[in-house]
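new request in #modeling-help
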Amino acid sequence: MKDLADTSGQPPGAAPNAPPAIELRGISKAFGPVQANKDISLSVAKGAIHGIIGENGAGKSTLMSILYGFYKADRGEILINGQVTQIPDSQAAIAAGIGMVFQHFKLVENFTVLENVVLGAEEGALLRTTMSNARKHLTEIAEEYEMNVDPDAVIEEIGVGQQQRVEILKSLYRNAEILILDEPTGVLTPAEADHLFRILRGLRDEGKTIILITHKLREIMDVTDTVSVMRRGEMTATVKTAETSPEELAELMVGRKVLLRVNKRPAQPGPTVLKVENLRVVDEDKVERLKGVSLEVRAGEILGIAGVAGNGQSELLNVLGGITRATGSVQINGQEIDLTGKHSDGRSRRKRGISHVPEDRQRAGLIMDFAAWENMVFGYQWDPALNTGWLMDNAGIKAETEGKMERFDVRPPNPQLAAKSFSGGNQQKIVLAREIERNPDLLLVGQPTRGVDIGAIEFIHQQIIDLRDAGKAILLVSVELDEIMGLSDRIAVMFDGQIMGERLPDETNEGELGLLMAGVTSGEGAR
Amino acid sequence: MDVMPKWADVVLVPVVSLLLAMVISALVILGIGEDPWAALKLMVQGSFGSTYGWGYTLFYATNFIFTGLAFAVASHASMFNIGAEGQATLGGLGVALVCLALPWPHWALALPAAMVGGALFGAAWAFLPAWLAAKRGSHIVITTIMFNFIGAAVLNYMLVNVMRPAGSMDPASAKFPDGTNLPSLHDILAVVGIPFSKSAPANLAFIIALIACVVVWLLIWRTRFGFELRAYGKSESAAVYAGISPTKIIVVAMLISGGLAGMMAVNNVMGEAERLVLNSVEGAGFIGIAVALMGRNHPLGILLAAILFGFLYQGGAELALWMSIPRELIVVIQGLVILFTGALDNMVRMPIEKIFLAIRRSKQAAGE
């Protein structure tokens, strides 16, 4: 381990000479042949915000799961406030003063805030006394840390930002001194994320210790005091945030220099390829998910759809990809496509020249148990070029797969390997290779770099831009604002199933987009 | 990265499971005061020691190949079809109706017609559960098992009220015309000069079962439909993304599955009994599940597992005949084999995986 800084230095909220709030010594954990954590040592001072950053699969979540009692370490020990502590389960973790806020909230949707906070910490068999005590206690905590949440609000009726606050309150109600947050900003707008960071700083100043797990460099730079970098199960460095830079952290994460910005020439848009008018989708629960969306994408340009997850972007992609049915009108190269009938499936869309890189490659884009060569034709198996009479031309497909894997730098370049054996980035390259090499008129791309290592992001972005430069239309959906700003030639912001407005990346900023993403149309409004 | 080499996965794990089942069976036989070694010798002798034994072993195996393939095809589409019993029952009805419909002049004409009849009836019996699963989300396990009972009742009704020859007290159909009698293995092997027992029931249907293995293999791993079927079986959400219709896959996979189960009747009804009797399937539909599980839903594995279960059936019958081992105990032994090879697969797999992992680690350590 490379120690770039002495982490026992005094962060703002620390008591002098106190033992570290958390100390991990030589933690190792293997799952079968995979060494998820390898001899990890870490010390987090009391009253600090400590970031843990690393690519997917670097072992961050495993490490935190060990700390929270979900997994048992093969070797090593955990010290809480200088005391060696056994954490066999999450009850023990809570007893030791550790609270965890998961990426996917663990709340009962139809319970109130108060009921959720109390759940699992009831005193005695009758609820009445617990509830009145809890109400008082919760109000005190909420006031102390300035987290205003109505205790009687029902979870499903409040926003994600508030739900996250309930998760934090749950931990504080159980007297957590150490708070672990796993990718907390994934579902938040930039403004909500800023609010969260204010809360975290407040908690730190009250002497709480906070561990923030993220893959976003900007958040680490914004809010943490110290940061540890993980790579391939090992802790490669621990540094003071003030003494490092995003470039240095990226390099530590990946192990080589990385280009953080996208290089592209100005777009040269051609004729309109995709024209969407007044698209509406009502889901199974009779909730309107798309409320009259209209947009256009021209050949040779990238239209980026920005928005917080769950505001209709997925439905838009699914309608265009033939998965969801809709009303309204969609034209490809001036010709209407079927939105409700027999030809509203993925196969018909592909025949019309629409390729689709889905948001969830593991559930939709790939069959994880299929070999790479089978995945390389998945969705196009009907194509006569891939068949010889009754049978599929497996030998030909395998040969072609080798070429595609080489051109898209899929590693290892072995067509026989099952999709699940590839890393997230290489899985995504398989999907991209399949969809881009069909030479589509329109490429739908959802979350192209979600769960993809920083090293592969660069390559994937370049492939998308190359396709644009080849004169194809691209509709990009991403919850990563940086990605939208970097790749798009035009940006449309979605909120609550509607397009709130369109902006040009050079003429806008994250603040303005953030407001649109939250549904606020101020000033000049939508163009 | 796979933990184990493929041969360990496909061969070693089932063999170890089988050995464990044999050890426990031996203990049970010891427990009732018989000699397990003598029992094993008798079983092997009785099922593989003579062409007569082989004739019975292969006859049972033929049934299990059809029902095993039936289960496997549905299984690749993640449909748990446990209705092969009922589908084979109805298949028997189809075969019988075809055989009794005309005074068939020669088996070569009757056979294709009977195959179609059996397959159609079996497929029809699978259609309703499939359609309910595709359109209404009914659970295929519940509906197919219910259809087993209904199928048995239908057969009962048909035999007692419709097909029973006038004056007969026996709930069975009339004997099929001679022109439908299939050549036995004795007749077939005589052509190439191999002597084979004349009285054993194995017949031409075994050859058809072998062809079915090849056809199913081609269907699942070489055709577009097989590709789509396997894709749907692994991930429904991905199949929908790719434009594969779940309704089509569910219905067609179940029709093929039911058709294969129905074709079993060519062996037991047309090839052996030469008339339709009550409970002609005798549990082969359920054994097919174990056969497919043990054979990992692969036709070659199913062929081998079917022969193993044919051995257990025939060897078991010999035991009951020649030793004072009750018939029920043979069911126990068969049950143990199913338990170890099907249900307790992971119990054997995980320790073996650990051993391979340890070997690999020590090799890596030595390499470093």
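bot summary: The mean pLDDT of chain B is 91.
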